[in-house]
Design goal:
single chain, mainly alpha, 6 helices, flat
């Protein structure tokens, strides 16, 4: 039974932002984990010829692009998810949403992963940094997924329609109808007759 005081269901934007946070986080974790085997392969032994070093350079470029792209996408989606989550009226658990704590944990582990002790050899520093980044991503995913489930349980049977979440970018005949606003219709007709 729904009353006027029931909070509004989560918006499709909130649902989409949550899914994208998780997807970008997984892409970032893959890129962070790929650095270690790529480094080990590059430093295993000297290579003759140009084919293997060229593949290593290409692998580094792809890994760097995936890392930067997924980190930028993750940043944008986390901001959107935070704004959308703060607008929801479902309250929060006593300690706060785990999604917020996951974001804080990810941020701290991301910073710490670049502050390795200089006494360690390069391979160990890379392995520790990658491990800390993957752990941070894991905390982020667990937190966001928990918050999505927690809010979903309080929202009841709410589930966004596919049409709401995946709006088509192709215009339909309804998009071109001008009977919804007579001023706009007159303006369009005036411009057509020029």
């Amino acid at each position: 039974m729904s009353t006027d005081n029931d909070p509004a269901p989560p918006s499709p934007d909130w649902e989409l932002a949550g899914r994208r946070v998780i997807r970008f986080a997984v892409a970032y974790a893959v890129a962070a984990a790929a650095v270690v085997p790529l480094f080990n392969w590059a430093t295993a032994r000297p290579y003759e010829g140009i084919a293997i070093p060229a593949l290593l350079i290409l692998g580094n470029i792809v890994t760097l692009a995936l890392t930067l792209g997924s980190l930028l996408g993750l940043l944008v989606c986390v901001v959107v998810w935070l704004v959308q989550t703060s607008r929801l009226e479902f309250g929060a658990p006593a300690g706060g949403h785990l999604g917020y704590w996951g974001i804080v944990g990810f941020g701290l582990l991301l910073v710490v992963s670049y502050l390795q002790p200089p006494a360690l050899d390069l391979n160990t520093r890379l392995l520790m940094g990658a491990g800390e980044r993957v752990l941070g991503v894991t905390l982020l995913i667990i937190g966001v997924a928990h918050t999505r489930r927690w809010i979903g349980r309080r929202a009841g049977d709410w589930a966004p329609d596919d049409a709401e979440v995946h709006l088509s970018s192709r215009p339909t005949a309804d998009d071109w109808k001008t009977d919804w606003d007579p001023d706009v219709a007159r303006d369009i007709e005036r411009r057509r007759s020029r």
